[in-house]
Write a structure and sequence with these properties.
Layout (H helix, E strand, L loop, with lengths): L6 E7 L6 H13 L5 E7 L6 H11 L3 E5 L6 H11 L4 E4 L11 H9 L4 E7 L5 H19 L11 E4 H4 L12 H5 L6 E7 L13 H19 L3 H30 L7 H33 L16
Parallel strand pairs: 1-2, 1-4, 2-3, 5-7
Antiparallel strand pairs: 4-6, 5-6
Helix pairs in contact: 5-8, 9-10
This protein binds uridine-5'-diphosphate and magnesium ion (MG).
Magnesium ion binds next to loops.
Length: 319
């Protein structure tokens, strides 16, 4: 059965009061032409300006608009997550509230989705932002994420993206992980396409992020690499580290024993003795950490009722 709403547009809003009316008008123009039932879900992430009043005013005129207001500022990822939880559409489209993404690109995203993709990611052309502080870190980050997760996209940071509803509902977001959604979703097997989209200048308000974001993205990347490769089998990682560490320790220890047997003398003045002991102990620690992580993994999957697989389609038998 088709749901009543086919398209859900999810927009995180933090101090964007001045941009909202134009954005809403542009969205309405683009969406009403499609002739598909849609909803717009705006999540006010604890704005301190008039954003909430602006949203309420728009919602009073437009039955498509749903607005959610956070009690405080939880960050863009949380705002996206709230939008995804509320979304009812078969396809969920995200974009920023500042007008930098162009709603006119939405029909193109949908065309691409119709070709059978699960995620279509915007790739901003002619970025309107300064090279050194914005575009360069983003080029490096995209390259790094591509190398380490095997989901190669030119522009992870672009908010304009389309997702199949059942895909996005299966991605749990924490921290600042929203920009990694395509990589996180890749574990379940998704078809991902890129689409060149328009990038526009921010006309009102100001950007909420600075260069410090680069570092946060780096730590998040470590989390994502771990989640993707080892979260279902952490012992594979910690076991290997433990084996490497204990192995090195044992080798150094053996060498020292041989040294003592052939040359006599004391080992106490040999710093490498301490290194050997340290490595063996660290190795044992890694293995225990692996065991604990294995137990946590089980809780993690079972507490969420989260299977370790994802099904694309089924054919049902007739008996
Ligand atoms: N945003 C949010 N919560 C925050 C910071 C930002 O919901 O704590 C929203 C913001 O209103 C905008 C989008 O996330 O719609 C992107 O933010 P911004 O334009 O500041 O980032 P940039 O485009 O400069 O990377
Ligand atoms: Mg912006």
């Amino acid at each position: 059965m088709k749901s009543r709403v086919e398209l859900s547009i999810v927009i995180p809003v933090y101090n964007e009061a001045e941009s909202l009316p134009d954005l809403h008008a542009e969205l309405t123009a683009a969406l009403s032409k499609l002739g598909r039932p849609y909803e717009i879900i705006a999540v006010d992430d604890g704005s301190r300006d008039e954003s909430w009043e602006a949203l309420k005013r728009l919602a009073a005129q437009d039955p498509h608009l749903w607005a959610i207001r956070f009690r405080r500022n939880f960050g863009q990822t949380a705002a996206f997550a709230a939008g995804f939880d509320a979304a009812r559409g078969d396809i969920v489209i995200t974009l920023d509230a500042d007008g930098q993404n162009d709603p006119a690109d939405i029909p193109l995203l949908l065309d691409k989705m119709a070709q059978g993709y699960d995620i279509v990611s915007g790739w901003r052309q002619d970025r309107q932002e300064p090279f050194l502080l914005r575009r360069l870190p983003s080029i490096v980050a995209n390259w790094l994420i591509g190398q380490t997760t095997d989901v190669r996209l030119h522009d992870y940071g672009c908010s304009l993206k389309a997702y199949r509803g059942e895909v996005i509902k299966n991605v749990r977001l924490y921290g600042e992980l929203h920009r990694f959604i395509p990589a996180l979703a890749s574990w379940m097997g998704v078809r991902i396409a890129e689409l060149r989209v328009n990038d526009r200048k921010r006309l009102h308000g100001k950007s909420k992020s600075g260069i410090s974001r680069t570092f946060r993205v780096l730590f998040d990347l470590l989390t994502v690499i771990f989640l993707l490769n080892y979260s279902a089998r952490p012992m594979q990682l910690f076991g290997r580290l433990g084996l490497a560490s204990s192995g090195m320790g044992a080798l150094i220890g053996l060498y020292l024993v041989a040294f003592r047997l052939f040359y006599g003398g004391s080992l106490l003045d040999k710093p490498s003795l301490w290194l050997a002991v340290l490595l063996v102990i660290a190795g044992a620690q890694f293995v225990s950490l692996g065991l604990i992580a294995e137990m946590i993994t089980r809780t993690y999957h079972e507490a969420q009722g989260k299977p370790i697989y994802a099904v694309r389609e089924r054919v049902e038998g007739r008996v």
